[in-house]
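Quick one: structure for this chain?
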Amino acid sequence: MARRIWIVSYDIADPKRLRKVFLTLRGYGDHLQLSVFRCELVEAERIVLESKLKKIIHHEEDQVLFADLGLCDGRGDGTIHTLGRPYTPPERTALVV
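Got it. Here's what it folds into:
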């Protein structure tokens, strides 16, 4: 299954839920800015992530946005445009423990 790049941003009203959303997303992607993550996910991972976030957020007060930037090996890497400091995708390396 193809891995896609997603930008996930969130606006969470409660500090406790905000922390839970942040920690959940940290397990799935790279923290880019205050409430923004870049996640490389296959469809099954995205569904699991959305399910976890649905259980955390208050649906009347909070919002989580998923923006699909495309395939990791396709146009996805070239879709982020910046002003100021340039964006550099994180280098993926294997960690052997």
